[in-house]
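Aim 2 progress update. The chain analyzed this quarter is reproduced below.
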Amino acid sequence: MKWSVFPRKFGFFPYIFLVYISFPALYLTRESGVKQLIGYGMVLLFLVSYRQLYFSMGKRKFTYWLAVQLAIVFIFSVFYDLNHIFLGFFPANFIGWYRDKRGFKRGLISLTIVEILPFIIHVIRTKTFLTPSELFYFVPFLIIMLISPFGVRSMNRRMELEKELDQANQTIEELVKREERVRIARDLHDTLGHTLSLLTLKSQLVQRLTAVDPERARIEAKEMEVTSRAALKQVRELVTDMRAATIEEELLQVQQILNTAGITYQYDGAADFSRISPFTQNIVGMCVREAATNVVKHSRATHCSISIKLFSEKMNIVIRDDGMGVRNNHPFGNGLRGMEERLALVDGVLALSNHNGAVLEINVPIIIKAEAPA
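Predicted structure tokens:
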């Protein structure tokens, strides 16, 4: 196992916070002797606890390392400089990672005590209350610090829900595939089993009649031809019935996906897609579902609307959300590239833009078949 400073799944984020460690190190230059030496030791221990907290999430050690951080923040704030209370942003971030309410409440109460008690001690020690400018300097940051665990916890919960939604969708797809295989096997047995058994018996009869009664053998062979044609027709009907999902069915799936993620859904447009070929419906349906999945995963939206309009020569699909929009440096992900590749099969095109959120527009030409002469 390759050693790393922080878990790779967190990317560059843990390294950004390391910048703020420079502030207590700078304040310690004003100290001297044993007090300065102990201070640098606590900074080093704080760095160790910061790293260990990332590796011990979900374990019992997580609470122990969090307690170490809170203790160091308290000691720095009381015995060194009151400005060290801003180190509380470090444990505030990790408190939001508690999944159980009990642990979260304990962490939040501990953080509140560690942040408020140094002010009380400062007032008692100096016998002077904080000036208005000092209150204006400290209070807003304290409020943000005490609120931030709720934001982190909410973000983590959303990420867990998205992961659970992906797993649920995969499970549903597997169950649908399994059920489809069972249905196909059952239909093949019911529709072709009897017919093939009949053809086998007739072929054995023809072999016996060839030498005894050639005319009867010819009649039986003719009946075998009729039976085989009927079997071929049954196979074609069975294959035709194995159709892909229609646009209407995919829209219902999209509604369930968005509702599960807590995103409101609105549909506006056509209700009858009978003049669209099954192949085109399959392509468009998959693209609409992929777009809805992207909204759930990446947009942070609270509302999504889908509009499908049919014109004489084309079908227009617009998917809008009120989320964070699309980053200009990464306009197309793997999902959108897959949509482009599918749409290319039906000469369709897509366009992605920002307008109070992301707007995905798809245009697919409608092919009108010429009627055959009577």
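The chain has a mean pLDDT of 83. The longest helix spans residues 132-212. These observations will guide the mutagenesis experiments scheduled for the next reporting period.
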